[in-house]
Every structure is written in C-alpha cells, then in structure tokens.
Amino acid sequence: MSLPDLTPWPDIHSRLQEIFPEGTPHRAQCVWEIAARTVFVMMYVGAVEGAEVWLRPDQVTRMTDAQAALLSDADRLIWSKASIKPSKAEVPGRWYAANTRESVRDDTLRNALVENGAVIERPGLATTSPLGRYALGAGFATLFDPALSGVALQDAIANWQRNHLTPGARMRIAVMRKGAAIDSDRVLVTFPGGETRRMAPGLSSELSRAVIEVFAPKFLGSPAVIFLSESRDKVVSRDDELARKIGLNILADKNLPDIILADLAPAHPLLVFVEVVASDGPISEKRKIALLKLTTAAGYPPQHIAFVTAYFDRSAAPFKKTVDGLAWGSFAWFASEPDNLVELIEGVRPLTH
C-alpha cells in the first residue's frame, strides 16, 4: 500500500485558513488546530477516498509528536493497524485526552469537514460500529501535497472550492471578501430613487450600502431612505421633507440608528430602523425602547415600526459577539445570505407549517 506524502500539521493548519476563508459555514471548526491535526492523521494512515482506509476519531487523540515524526511507510502502517483497534491503554504524550474524540467526531468531522465536502463517511456502516468511518475526499487530500505551492496551490484551492463548496457558501465567502477589501476610495451608495451618496471607506459603509441597495428593495415594497449616517456625528443623508410627509418628526438624538428606511407601499408607511454591525452595536432592547419613545413622541404608531440589525455574515465574530443582545421583536439580516431574514419572535406564537 502506497501512502500519501505528508505535510507537517502546522503547514496543514495554514492551508486550511486559505481553503476555508471567512464566510465558510462552520469555518472555525474547519480551521482550528484540531482540524489540522485530524487531517494530518488521516493523511498519516492513508484515509483518503478510494483507498478503503477509514479513520476512527480516537486515532487523532492517540497520535503523539514522537509518532508523527516517524515518516516511513512501514512505521505509519504499523501505527495505523495498532491505533484503529479500540483501546483504553495509556498513551504517553498523546495529542489529546481520550474524551476529546467527541469533539473530533462531532465538531470537526461531522459538522464541519463533512458538511463542507472535505471529508466523506463510509457507506453502509452501522451507527454503533467500532470500525473506522471517515476519509478525506480525494480532491481535498491533494491540497496537502507538500510538493504543491505558490500559484499551483492557489489554483488547486480555487478549483476545489468551485467544485465542493455549495453556491451559498461561495456567496458568503464572496461577500466577506468584498467587505474586507477596503481601499482609499469612498463608498458610493445608490439610493432607491437613483441618487447617490459617498461614504467614508470602511466595513460599516460597505454594510450600509448592502442594506440600501440589497435589503431595502428585497424586503420593502416601495423603499425610501430617510436617514443615513456613517457615524453618530456625521449624517450622510437626511430627508426631513419625506419624514414630515409620513408623519415622522426626526430629532437629533444619540439613539438614532445608522439608517432609517421607509416602505411607502402600505397605506400607512412602515418605518424601519436599521443598525449596521461591522464590530458591535446591535438593536438591543434598550435601543429599541429608546427609539419607540422617539417615534411615540413624534406621533408615529409602534405597529408600523420595524427594527433590523444588519451583519455581513452569521458565522463571523460580530454576530456571535452581539446575538445575545438583540431585542425581541426585531430582525437580523445577513448580507452574505440576502434572501433570508431572522425574526426574534416576542411573546407566545403557535408554530405553523
């Protein structure tokens, strides 16, 4: 049996960062150290699609630095045969404690690498079987060939991403890359009526543009922009005339969100307060109450008001950091998944199909 050439696990770790860029579903579990060591062990034992060799998650926990340094096919085959057998024997210097196998199996393999098409599962194997179950996809395994580098590696990664990541995953990656690609040019935002405004470069401005150019026409029947700021102090656009026409008196206030939209399609226009979160600052319960006080004082009925917090991606840090602060009765929208909207339902509502 010919085993694949080995790349050290730290180098595998670096490659995983490129293979699964920001925006990839379950990215954290695809690129963390456990994932790199798991891929290394799969390559070490030859658990690659087509070889009919399959990994048990506890083999990853039983690997040691001393064993990983033994690179001959003979040493690898001897260890592969010994480590595939269930055992409770003590392993000096093991990479992980025995109970870490659940994290390898569930977090890294099933919920991340398998979901993203990098790892396959052995067909027809009973759930309770002690046999090895996982192997690297053949195309994925080639990305860790130590002879592959530079432009050839980048081309191979791009080709694998096109063939294996889902269209939704690729869209999320593209949006995240666009958001990260900030240069010195000001951000040009096109309003629903065709007029344009320029905002200072930055993630918040890019996300504000997505809200106005993508979210607004997608979720509002006849959208209009009443208020747009790029910071609490700098107002990019303010339409007091339109605000007065729909019965809203906008007063300067520290609680004003980044964007105020209106849907002019209903008989009574819908007012939409949007906060863009590139780092922090969602529509929290406190912000929601403060905004409702403003609109109530202006004579605007609360049943015609909506609250939205906009993010680049639900797998990225800003959402994970602020999700527990989102107000009940508000919405969350992600630029990387523009057709969907998350509602935080307030109060009891029966589940319907």
Label this structure with key terms:
single chain; about 350 residues; alpha+beta; Trna Endonuclease, Chain: A, domain 1; seven-stranded mixed beta sheet; two-stranded antiparallel ribbon; 14 helices; about 15% strand; elongated
Query: In what order do the strands lie side by side in the largest sheet?
Result: 6-5-7-8-9-10-11
Low-pLDDT segments, ≥5 res: 180-184
Mind summarizing the main beta sheet? 7 strands, mixed
What is the string of helix and strand elements?
A: HHHHHHHEEHHHEEHEEHEEHEHEE
Globally, the shape reads elongated
* Total number of distinct structural domains: 2
Proportion of helical residues: 25-40%
What class do helices, strands and sheet pairing give?
A: alpha+beta
**Which architecture of the largest domain would the CATH scheme give at its second level?**
Orthogonal Bundle
**Kindly, what is the distance between the CA atoms of the first and last residues, rounded to a whole number of angstroms?**
53 Å
Mean pLDDT: 87
Number of beta-strand segments: 11
Number of helices: 14
CATH topology of the largest domain: Arc Repressor Mutant, subunit A
Q: What Rg is obtained from the alpha carbons, in whole angstroms?
A: 26 Å
Q: What's the level 1 CATH class of the largest domain?
A: Mainly Alpha
Give the DSSP E fraction (strand runs of 2 or more residues).
5-15%
